[in-house]
Amino acid sequence: MKRQLAEKNGREGETRAAFWLRARGWSILASRVRTPRGEIDLVAKRAGLIAFVEVKWRRNKADLDLAIDERRLARVAAAVECVAHDYATQGEDIRIDVILLAPGALPRHIANAWQP
């Protein structure tokens, strides 16, 4: 039951993050992209830039600071390696972003969160 609620909240967070990105001029190319090495929550594009976005939803604003860490970002980076060529054309930059969400808090967008 707890896992189902977490899954539901995660999907809600991804929907909100996609809406927030669209409002800021991004196009959403894909969501919930599954790869052999993990899942990418959103793939977004704006002005020659492709962002692979990890979305984290937490029950309260205080938990957002602990929502993302190097291990989680490394897993996303491994998944991106599997599919980056499917989304980015020659000359487009790619990066990994994070969007942190909690009830009553504005989304926190961390651009270029992964730099190995």
Automatic annotation (TrEMBL):
This is UPF0102 protein GRI47_04925. GO terms for molecular function: nucleic acid binding. Pfam families: UPF0102. Belongs to the UPF0102 family. It comes from Qipengyuania pelagi. SUPFAM superfamilies: Restriction endonuclease-like. The lineage of its organism: Bacteria, Pseudomonadati, Pseudomonadota, Alphaproteobacteria, Sphingomonadales. HAMAP family: UPF0102 (MF_00048). It comes from the Bacteria.
